[in-house]
Amino acid sequence: MGQGQEFHARKLILESMQTGGWVLLQNVHLSLPFCVEIIDMLVESDRIEDSFRMWVTTEPHNEFPIGLLQMAIKFTNEPPQGIRASMKRSYQAFTQDFLDYTAAPQWPPLLYTVAFLHTIVQERRKFGPLGWNVPYEFNQADFAASVQFIQNHLDEMDPKKGVSWQTVCYMLGEVQYGGRVTDDFDKRLLTTFTSFEFHRGYKVPNTKNLIGFVEYINSLPMYDTPEVFGLHPNADITYQINSAKDF
């Protein structure tokens, strides 16, 4: 939605109501006045086919019409909490063929390390200002771009020289993820993370098989202490208080 899409959405909704089709409206928070119009169309329509369905996606918004929420069956999609859940979600998108795409032995551990870095930078957001001075919107696109860079780097790598760690750290810390970072102290923190030092109890599994990675991820702790993210143990108190307030 947005940018003049209301005309097309209105036409599709009216047609689908008569034919029994399905309609998906994405990001309706960009067009809140149209949400009120949707309510009117649903309430005032003389005939709606039983097979008609309308799906709506939106971000949380204080001005979203309560009436539309009350009429709908609501689903929420939240990112997984914790390192184990986040890593499992990342590796669910991989296949064994993806892990075998190159014979370079550095590929499987590098992929795992980048996935772990992605998890850390995302998980620190839940600690508020203790995690990052500025709340950054790190997302799956950052992870995908980082993985693509690693693939390109390995494809162009001279086997005699090996991986250029200076290049990898710079691209991840200054470009892929660092491109979103505006605070100087956050930049220093991200640069530290790209040195790829794991907290005790966490490591890169010595395997090349997808099943081996998944089994190791499943063995990770259910609960992650703040020290895993480089924070003081008391940071968990702040997180629990903020979670209770948000709830």
The gyration radius over C-alpha positions equals 23 Å
Second-tier CATH architecture of the largest domain: Orthogonal Bundle
Biggest beta-sheet profile: 2 strands, parallel
Mean pLDDT: 87
Number of strands: 2
Order of helices and strands: HEHEHHHHHHHHH
Oligomer: single chain
Number of domains: 2
Counting DSSP H or I runs of 4 or more residues, the number of helices is 11
The neighbouring-strand order within the major sheet is: 1-2
Q: Could you list the spans in which at least 5 consecutive residues all have pLDDT below 50?
A: none
Topology:
Elements: H1 6-19, E1 22-25, H2 32-44, E2 53-56, H3 66-71, H4 83-92, H5 96-99, H6 107-123, H7 140-156, H8 165-176, H9 184-193, H10 210-218, H11 235-246
Parallel strand pairs: 1-2
Helix pairs in contact: 4-6, 4-10, 6-7, 7-8, 8-9
